[in-house]
Every structure is written in structure tokens, then in C-alpha cells.
Amino acid sequence: MNTVALGDLVLTNARIVLPNEVLEGSVRVDGGIITDIGTPSRTGLDLDGDYLIPGLVELHTDHLETHYAPRPRVRWNPVAAVQAHDAQIAASGITTVLDAIRVGLDEDSDVTAAEMRTLADAVAAGGVAGRLRAEHHLHLRCEVSAADCLESFALYRDDPRVRLASLMDHTPGQRQFTSMDACRAYYQGKRKMSDAEFNGFVERRNAESAAYAGPHRRAVAAACRDLGIVLASHDDATRDHVAEAEDLGIEVAEFPTTIEAARASRQAGMSILMGGPNMVRGSSHSGNVSARALAEADLLDILSSDYIPFSMLQSAFALADAVESVSLSKAIQLVTKRPAEAAGFHDRGEIATGKRADFVHLRVEDGIPIVLTVWRQGRRVI
């Protein structure tokens, strides 16, 4: 992609969201790196008093797959799918993204392992060709209860773009779907199952989980430790789930479903990640603990877009508005500095001298942050 090269860049008359304060001033960039933060400058690009925040760092988005497989049995060109996904990601203020790729396919999946590898290759090709606005890496969503989990994982063993792997098990009756009523409503609504078909689905998924979940969970965790890939748990609901995650070397607790599990995760030293849609809506679509409740209990470290890219930015402003103890600076850290640190990106995630010049210029209208301009490493991409 031919981004707009600005060379030495000065952004002035901005409300700069720093880690601990909002400063009215200017930012100077040289060679894609922040070199100075100070009072408003007489020269430079005037931001009219709008907000300037760090570029967002996204650890878990399922959105790429929806561009590739937008309807059952419909497939889009993978290059076109990646370009569409990338444009929406960048326009949502995200400058670094870990694209979620399915590893291990249960019967609810509408894609194959080979298709997922093709999609990951299209992401890599876009980066090499320089036509992507955001910087893309991979997050392996490992369905440990699926028979082909280890076989699928092997397709990415030598891929240097893999930064995170989550260990998940969507078997009905536990974790995300402790409530069978919620599980029934979700799957019967999504797949138009009859009661008999749903009962058969539950029976098969429980049998698969009993056979594969434990061995696959341990094997993937061991491989990730050897490869230096950050590990995440997924939908932990109990202290036993968290204890198991701790034994496996988990560093990020994705979407804990109860406050009990979130507290145990914090005690174990894990970063707690919740979804932006949950924060914006004020509740989980599965009926589990809300991101807002965890924030009020100081049990929230990272916000992710999950399935709506713009929800990441929107949720940070919603959090600052809804929870008195959370300032805007702290809320913005949950979508920038905290996820960057969790994924090992120590050169970005905050507006500070020596850090990458990844910026989002925005203003707030009727409570909604409106993205106006995005820079990655000092180059305009939106």
C-alpha cells in the first residue's frame, strides 16, 4: 500500500492522551519515532483541539474470517478478504492486529484447516507487498476438543507471525455456555437445529471434549512454550479452570465468564482480557459476567474488539464514561499499552519519546469517538 509519507512530522493543538494525563500540546516525530512531546507548536499539522491517542493494539479479532466466509458455503477471494479486513481494522484506529485463525475445527465450523492456512498466507503476502495499513500478526484460536487440533497447529509451527495462541473448548454445558438455555438459544438460532438435532450435537461435542481436550490442551501449551508464543486461556469459569491454566503457563485470561475466575486469574498474575462489544452493550451476549462489572472491581486489563472492530475504540470511551474510577488515560491503556505489553510489543502502545509514532486523531460526537486520521510509524494510513 502506498501510504502518505510525511517524513518529519509535527502534530499540534491536540489533546494528547498520555498514560497518566491528557496534555494539550504537540508531538514531534522523526523517522517514525516520537522524539518530543511539548507545548503547542507554531508549525505542524493543527488538530483543532481534537484527541490524539496511541494506535490501538488488537489481540483477538475474529473479523477476518467473516470477510473470507461471509455466508455458509460462500468463499471470497482471500486477497480481497484481507484487504477489506485491513481497511476496516485501520479505520477503527487499530495499527497493530493479531488476526484470529481457527486451529482445530469442530462441526460448527464452516471452513477447513487448508482454507485457514490460505487466509494466513494472504495476510503474509499483503504485508510483504506493503499494501496493508495495519501491522498484522496471528493469533491461533486452538479448539482443543477438536480431533484435528494438533494437525492444524502443525501448519503454523514455523510461522514467525504467530504471537498468541488461546486454548479454547466450546463444548456445551461448560465455560462460555455453562447455561444450557443460553447454549440452546445460540446454536439453535444460528444453525436452525431441531431439539433432536441439538441434543445429538451436544452428545457428540461432549464425547469429543472427553477424548481430546485434555491431551490437546497440554500438547499445544508445551509447543507454545518451546516456540515462545504467548498463551491465553479462554472462557475460564471456575478456580479449577484458572489453576489448570496457571499450571500450563497461561499469561492472558481471555473472557473469563465469572468474577470468581477473574479474581483467580488476577491472583495468578494473568492479564484479564474482555470484549469491546460486552463493554459497549453492558452485558455478555452469553449471559456471563459483564466487562463493566470486572472494570468496577479493578479486574480488567485489556479490551479487544472480538467480533466488531470499531467496538475496541468505542469501548474505551464507554468505559471512561461509565466507571468513575477509570480515567480516559487509564481506559485508553486497555486498548494500547496493556495489550502491547501482553503480546511482547515493547516499542509501541503509548505516546512517549522513543516509541513508535502510531497515532489516532479523533473527536467525540454524541459519545462516539470519530476516527479522522491514523498514522503508523509516522506515515498516514487513513
Q: State the distance separating the first and last CA atoms.
A: 11 Å
By secondary-structure content and strand pairing, the structural class works out as alpha/beta
CATH architecture of the largest domain: Alpha-Beta Barrel
Main pleated-sheet profile? 9 strands, mixed
- Determine the CATH topology of the largest domain: TIM Barrel
Please describe the topology of this protein:
Elements: E1 4-5, E2 9-17, E3 22-30, E4 33-38, E5 45-46, E6 51-54, E7 56-61, H1 63-68, H2 78-91, E8 94-103, H3 113-129, E9 135-143, H4 149-153, E10 162-168, H5 180-191, H6 195-227, E11 230-234, H7 239-248, E12 252-254, H8 259-267, E13 271-275, H9 276-281, H10 291-296, E14 302-304, H11 311-322, H12 328-333, H13 337-342, E15 359-365, E16 368-376, E17 379-380
Parallel strand pairs: 2-5, 2-6, 7-8, 8-9, 9-10, 10-11, 11-12, 12-13, 13-14
Antiparallel strand pairs: 1-17, 2-3, 3-4, 6-15, 15-16, 16-17
Helix pairs in contact: 2-3, 7-8
What would you say this structure looks like, in words?
This protein has 382 residues and is α/β, with parallel strands linked by helices. It folds into two domains: 1-54 and 348-382, Urease, subunit C, domain 1 (Roll), CATH 2.30.40.10; 56-347, Alpha-Beta Barrel (TIM Barrel). It has 13 helices and 17 strands. Strands 1, 2, 3, 4, 5, 6, 15, 16 and 17 form a nine-stranded mixed sheet that branches. α2 packs across α3 (113-129) and α7 (239-248) runs parallel beside α8 (259-267). The chain is globular. The model is unreliable at 2-6 (pLDDT under 50).
